[in-house]
Amino acid sequence: MWKDISVQWQTVLEEAWTAFTSGSIPVGAAVFSKDGELLVKDHNRRNEPGTLNPRTAHAELNVIQHIDCRYGLNIRETELYTSMEPCPMCMGAIVMSNIKHLHCGSHDRWCGALHLLDTDPYMRSQHISVSDIPEDTEFFQLVLSSYHELKHIRKGGSPSVLECFRISSASAVEAAEKLCQNRVLDQYAQMNKPCSEVYDLIIQIKEEQNV
Length: 211
Known about the structure:
Structural class: alpha/beta
Number of strands: 5
Oligomer: single chain
Largest sheet: 5 strands, mixed
Strand order of the largest sheet: 2-1-3-4-5
CATH architecture of the largest domain: 3-Layer(aba) Sandwich
Number of helices: 10
């Protein structure tokens, strides 16, 4: 449940929920110092007013652009947390910014680019460490992302992304379908429910599925 996850994961999931409530792709990211101090946090801003280039308004890119390196910060010692596996654009930014420690909250079978750290010679040479993906964090993120995609499909969008999520976790997509049927997360967003309540709701569904 919410009380059981680290402050780092709470931070990025809160950002993902903020993105969801604004109608953007629900991904959050944050950069922490080696001592756990929050340096910067942000989320996908694709659907927010004033976003100049929605295609590049990704959570990871947003936080990387706002890391303050003017006063001696050793960026190699920082840790980037993101609620979902970075895309090729964001993975490139992570590598080129000299971030060496990456934590992902979920796989992304649609456009995730973690594989580049093994298959691209330059990226492999940068020796970026990637932590294991937490099971509950992944379930939560895939439910949020699947719910977002279900709304997109209702408007005539392609189901391709959702089907990729289904490969990762059919149970997460099933949970999203049930929640979306009654617009539960839309109602939570309208009521300004905190991410902690959303997280506990989704993890409770996960636990009930496993009974």
